[in-house]
Amino acid sequence: xxxxxxVIIAGGGIGGLATALTxxxxxxxxxxxxxxxxxxxxxxxxxxQPNAVRELYDLxxxxxxxxxxxxxxxxxxxxxxxxxxxxxxxRGLLAGYNWPQYxxxxxxxxxxxxxxxxxxxxxxxxxxxxxxxxxxxxxxxxVSALVEHADxxxxxxxxxxxxxxxxxxxxxxxxxxxxxxxxxxGGAVMWRGTTLAKPIRSGxxxxxxxxxxxxxxxxxxxxxxxxxxxxxxxxxxxxTMDNAEGWKQSGWFRQVGIGDFIHHFDHWIWDxxxxxxxxxxxxxxxxxxxxxxxxxxxxxxERVALLGDAAHAMYPTGSNGGSQAIVDARILGAAMVxxxxxxxxxxxxxxxxxxxxxxxxxxxxxxxxFGLLNIVDERCGGTFDDIDDVIPPEERTAFMAGYKAAAGxxxxxxxxxxxxxxxxxxxxxxxxx
Length: 433
Ligand SMILES: Cc1cc2nc3c(=O)[nH]c(=O)nc-3n(C[C@H](O)[C@H](O)[C@H](O)COP(=O)(O)OP(=O)(O)OC[C@H]3O[C@@H](n4cnc5c(N)ncnc54)[C@H](O)[C@@H]3O)c2cc1C
Hints:
Elements lengths: L6 E4 L3 H12 L4 E4 L11 E4 L1 H9 L4 H7 E3 L2 E5 L5 E6 L11 E4 H16 L4 E2 L2 E8 L5 E7 L4 E6 L1 E4 L6 H6 L7 E14 L7 E7 L2 E7 L10 E10 L13 E3 L12 E2 L2 E2 H6 L4 E8 L7 E2 L2 E3 L2 H4 L8 H19 L3 H23 L5 H10 L6 H4 L2 H15 L3 H6 L17
Parallel strand pairs: 1-2, 1-12, 2-8, 5-14, 12-22
Antiparallel strand pairs: 3-7, 4-7, 5-6, 9-10, 10-11, 13-16, 13-20, 14-15, 15-16, 17-20, 18-19, 21-22
Flavin-adenine dinucleotide binds next to α1, β9, α7 and α8.
C-alpha cells in the first residue's frame, strides 16, 4: 500500500478528527492540517446524540471515556414562562435507544478525539499552525491543498482526496461555492457559559425555558462531584432581536461581561430555578449570534468534499451539529469501503447526505424541536395553566417524532440499522492510491 498520497483533511475539529480516526480504522492513510497553533479545550456544552455515540463506540471509544468528558443525558424538557412543563421526554437509553445520548464539554471531548488520533495514527497525523487556504485539482488525478503556516510560509500538500472539515468559515467551501451568500443571521443572540450548580429534575435534564424569542437553555455536562453534589451546568441565554442591519459586532464569538446581558433575565426566578443566580456565578460568558449558512446544492467538487460545519453549519436548536459531523465522517468511511479512495466515494457520500441534511438546516432555522415553543406562544402567548388545553399530548408527540425522523435519531430506525461501517471492514489495498 502506498502512503504517499494520503487523504488530506482540512481542519482538526470534531468532524476532521472523527474522519481521521475513521479512515485509520478502515486502512486509509490521512493527514490533518489544522489552523490553530495549539489544541486547547475550547467551547462549552454540546450534545452527542445516540446516532453519534453509536459511531464513537464503533470507533472504540468507551462509556468510561465519554463519562470523563460529559454525562449521559436523561431528559429533554420544554418549560413555559410561568415555570410549567410544556413537554418532556426521556433521552438516550431511557428512551429505548441502544446507545446513550451524552451532554459533553465540547473542548474536553475535542481533546479526547485529538489524544486518540495521536495515539492511533501518530503525532505526525495532525499538523498544527497549518491553515488550508484553497485547493488545486491536478491533471494526474490528485488534488493539492494550499497550506499556509502561522509564520506566513506556504506549501502544497498532495493527496488522493481533500476533505474540507474547516468549520463554518470554511476556505474549502468558499472556493467550491464562490457565489455562496454571506453567513446568515436570523436575529437570535446567544450568551453562553458554565456554572457549578446542583443539577435539577432527573439530575441530567436538558431544559429549554421561555419563548422562542426569549429563552434560557441549560443542562449538566459533567457528573456531580461526589463531595459537593455540584456539576458543571452549561447554559445558553438567548434573545431574538431585529436583524435588519445585520450583525454589527466585530467577531462571531467574543467574551462579554455578565452585566452586558443579564438584564434580559432579571425576573426569571421560580421556586425551583433562579436564572440570574445561575448566570452570575459563571466564570466567564461568551456572546455569539445564532448563525448558519444557506444550503448548497452539492458538497463535492471531483476529489474534494465538505464535511461537518463546512458542509452544513446549522442552528444549534436541534443539538445535532457535532453529532452530524461524526455521522458524516462514518458515512464517508462507509462510502470508501464500498468505492475505494475515489471521487465515486465522495459522490456516494454527497448523494446520501447533502439533500436530507440541507433540509435539516432549514428545519433548525424554523426553530427545530423548539418549534413547540412557537406553537405555544402563538396560541396563548406562552402562559397557560394546563398545557393540554393549548396543545394536546398527541400533537406534541407527533411534532417531536417528525423532528427526530428528519434528524436521523428515530429510535426504531436507529436501533435496527446495521452498523454504518461493519466491524473489521477495510478499504481494498488496491484502491488506496
Ligand atoms: C473553538 C470552537 C468552540 C466551539 N464551541 C462550541 C460550543 O460551545 N457549542 C457548540 O454548540 N458548538 C461549538 N463549536 C462548534 C462545534 O464544534 C461544531 O458545530 C461541530 O462540532 C461541527 O464540527 P466541525 O469539525 O465541523 O467544526 P469545528 O468544530 O468548528 O472545527 C473546525 C476546525 O477547523 C479549523 N479550521 C478552520 N479553518 C481552517 C482552515 N482554513 N484550515 C485548517 N483548519 C481550519 C478550526 O480551527 C477548527 O479546529 C465550537 C467550534 C470551535 C472551533
